[in-house]
Amino acid sequence: MTITPSAWWDRDRHIDRRARLIDRNRIKAALRAWFEAEGFTEVEPGCLQVSPGNEAHLHAFRTEHIGTDLARRELYLHTSPEFAMKKLLAAGEERIFAFAPVFRNREAGPGNTNPWHANEFTMLEWYRAGEPVEALYRDCREILRIAAQTTGRWVWSVPKRDAPSTGRLERFDLETCDLRTMLLGEIDQLAVADAFSRHAGIDLAAAYDGDAADASRFRAAAETAGVKTMPDDTWSDVFARVLTERVDPHLGRWRPELLTRYPISEAALAKPDPTDPRFAQRFELYVCGVELANGFAELTDPAEQARRFEAEMALKEARYGERYPIDADFLAALAHMPEASGCALGFDRLAMLATGARSVADVQWTPVVSN
Hints:
The protein is of the alpha+beta class. Helices cover 32% and strands 22% of the residues. The chain has helices at residues 11-37, 82-90, 134-151, 192-200, 216-224, 235-247, 302-320, 328-334, 347-355; strands at 41-42, 48-49, 61-66, 72-77, 95-103, 120-129, 155-159, 174-178, 188-191, 257-260, 272-273, 276-280, 282-287, 290-297, 340-346. The two termini are 19 Å apart.
């Protein structure tokens, strides 16, 4: 006999979910108060955009605008509020933040078993004009502290990747992260090249010339490390495989960790590192092996940004048979945008970890149901 799980709106199930949903609200309120105390202005970026974003492996929801004259044009639900918020920086805003609903296709589907993904989720995104990327490190530390303080849970955990799927998890089936260690100092930092060396035994610098054109050496190094590759894998494909299989699971174990200095080919909207232009001023925040946030020093050169977007869309067309428009208005705004740093954090993931939930759907008031 097949048993259909009760819907999220079932009264008994909602009672079980409600405490975490209220905690989600409390975390959001506490974060909003902190940002406002820091001199930030909350903004509400529109979801409907000319371009959903121009990263090759992000997939958008397409829609159609019909005017009063019945003229039709294609629009998209954004995958991030980034373009709109950078236009606000160009307009003169200096410190802004948003709790933005965002939409990403191919993230989940019927029978989705990945607890970290959903097609619609909330992104906490913020920008500091005129401040270096390191200022965001402190912000991440404060956001984690506020979330833990709000729920009173300082030790966060997630099931290990090889944990049993029965739901009966023992202590040894969990990856844990103690946020109290963070209170003693700054969040640990680890450069991507050092992470590849430590966790995969790969000399990333030797396999990277800055434009990721030659993947053969990288594929060979990955195979030696036990990561299976395909003959047509690009450099970025191999990078993603090694990162996912060998590096990610080790990050943020026991205490939060920042993965820094990504290869420039993996940072389409970030500025190069002034000490080595092969790498970018980009970082990601990890807790319990889970990526929570992605931040960088913002690229403000419209010509270079256009070149990167064109390269990303060429890759997208070759891989997926489609490409997205490039927002000319965004490129025009970049020429007027000040130097800035920005970060995007998956708010549902944060709420999930801080409340002890086992799925982002358990901390979404009305999760999308896939039939």
